[in-house]
Design goal:
about 500 residues, alpha+beta, Helix Hairpins, Heat Shock Protein 90, 3 domains, 5-stranded mixed beta sheet
Length: about 500
């Protein structure tokens, strides 16, 4: 079952079915228990009525027993012999005995009578003759009905050929003569069975109907809820087929998870479109940048083959070096785009700056370096990539400076800051972010020999971001550009 709607409808139906079955069983059990208790109470009332007659010394053959069909009654003695039974009772089960014919039992039916206690008419009170007033009359003793809770059992009784289920209650009674008898009286369970049967039939009929309704409603609601998802899927399929990343999936007007999914999908498409456009521009610009030195180098070599005396060897070397540098830049950008992580080497940025400055012997403008001698300037990263940032910033400053280029290193609020300044024309404020884009040169009129390919600053910022740092440009005090590289300082273990 691969459909979300089908799985959801099935799951909801199963949950509701389990809940309804559990609730139905609980209702049936409670209903049966209550009705059984009511039948037991009726049986107890009938048993106590007969027991009350026995406590009043009513002879067992003169007991006023209820109708056998309503309340079948048995009276047994201490030995379990049947001494009284309801009329028309043919068979019975679940009581003390299954007999329906009374057995012979010596059960006293009345208390003793009065006796004369005077010995020859003597008077116990002064010897006077008081006649009949002095006769001792014995008052009959009274029995009692047990106050204990009766014992309840379930059984059957057959009256006039009809057998039914009954709830029996057993109550003990003691006669005035001290004889204990047990009364077994029953109450029919037909009402309980009928009510439970009716509820059971209603549940068996209603449960499937309710489950069908739940399944149908869940199916429809899930279908309605997932309709925007199907729209998103269809549009994504169309975008994949057409390769048109400018299209967007429909966003529902709701504020639920599906709406957020649609918005996130459109944001992903926007980022993907920008990435693809940037990649296309990168390939086009790279092809254009590579075409010029390759074409120039080929022309010089072809001229050299035809006219060796006209071969411009220095120019060919320059084009080769430029082509090599451009290929290295493109390779580094490709590695950065692929997610290459920087190394974890411990570096001293002051020493790295001194090393880079010392290698720039043939620069047009000498570089002035300012590095604190005792301040800790350590960071963690790739030595070659961080050296590439400093080299690119110095190359950019040399290209635009008029008379001075300065580089400084300092610590500031947990960061190591490398600043490169020049006294050139600077960078206009609206262009200060665009210069970090790839193949961007603000001076489009200058020759390619005088300017770079527009990759140096882009590489520098990408490397800075890979090292959890930043690269920004502002106006220098000399009026030119001031580039600041900020990198997280490595904590000093000694502090």
């Amino acid at each position: 079952m691969r459909s979300v709607r089908a799985r959801t409808a099935l799951g909801a139906t199963v949950v509701v079915a389990v809940a309804l079955i559990g609730a139905g069983l609980a209702v049936l059990l409670v209903l049966r228990a209550n009705l059984t208790d009511q039948a037991g109470l009726q049986a107890e009332v009938a048993a106590r009525e007969v027991a009350g007659q026995l406590a009043l010394d009513v002879p067992v053959h003169q007991l006023d027993l209820p109708d056998a069909e309503e309340h079948p009654v048995q009276v047994t003695d201490e030995d379990g012999r049947l001494v009284a039974v309801s009329e028309d009772l043919v068979a019975i089960t679940g009581t003390g005995t299954d007999r329906v014919e009374p057995q012979a039992s010596a059960v006293p039916t009345s208390t003793g009578t009065g006796t004369d206690d005077d010995d020859g008419g003597g008077d116990r009170h002064g010897g006077e003759d008081r006649g009949d007033d002095d006769a001792n009359v014995s008052i009959p003793a009274r029995g009692e009905v047990s106050a204990d809770d009766p014992d309840f059992t379930n059984g059957t009784a057959t009256v006039d050929g009809g057998t039914a289920d009954y709830r029996f209650a057993s109550v003990s009674a003691t006669t005035g003569a001290g004889v204990t008898l047990t009364v077994h009286a029953g109450a029919p369970l037909a009402t309980e069975q009928k009510a439970v049967g009716s509820v059971r039939r209603a549940m068996l009929i209603g449960l499937p109907v309710m489950l069908l309704i739940v399944a149908a409603v869940t199916w429809l609601m899930t279908r309605r809820a997932l309709r925007p998802v199907e729209g998103i899927r269809a549009e994504m399929s169309a975008i994949t087929a057409s390769e048109d990343l400018s299209r967007r999936v429909p966003e529902p007007g709701s504020r639920d998870e599906i709406a957020r999914l649609a918005r996130t999908t459109n944001e992903t498409l926007t980022a993907l479109e920008a990435s693809v456009d940037r990649q296309r521009r990168f390939v086009a610009d790279a092809s254009h940048e590579l075409r010029s030195p390759i074409a120039s180098l080929r022309t010089q070599l072809e001229v050299g083959v035809a006219h060796p005396e006209l071969l411009d060897v220095p120019g060919a070397v320059t084009d080769t070096v430029r082509l090599q540098a451009l290929a290295a830049d493109l390779l580094l950008l490709a590695r950065l785009d692929a997610g290459e992580r920087p190394g974890s080497t411990r570096l001293d940025m002051g020493a790295l700056v001194h090393e880079e400055v010392s290698q720039r012997i043939g620069d047009r403008i000498p570089v002035t370096a300012s590095v604190p001698p005792s301040e800790p300037l350590e960071v963690t990263g790739s030595r070659s990539q961080l050296a590439r940032i400093i080299g690119n910033l110095l190359d950019n400053a040399e290209r635009h400076a008029e008379s001075s280029v300065a580089v400084s290193v300092r610590t500031e609020r947990g960061s190591v800051v490398v600043a490169v300044s020049d006294d050139g024309p600077g960078v206009p404020e609206p262009e200060r972010e665009r210069i970090f884009e790839r193949f961007v040169r603000l001076d489009d009129a200058r020759s390619r020999d005088e300017g770079g390919a527009g990759l140096g600053l882009a590489i520098a910022r990408d490397v800075a971001r890979r090292h959890q740092g930043t690269l920004t440009v502002t106006r220098s005090p000399e009026g030119g550009a001031r580039f600041e590289l900020r990198l997280p300082a490595r904590p000093d273990p000694g502090r």
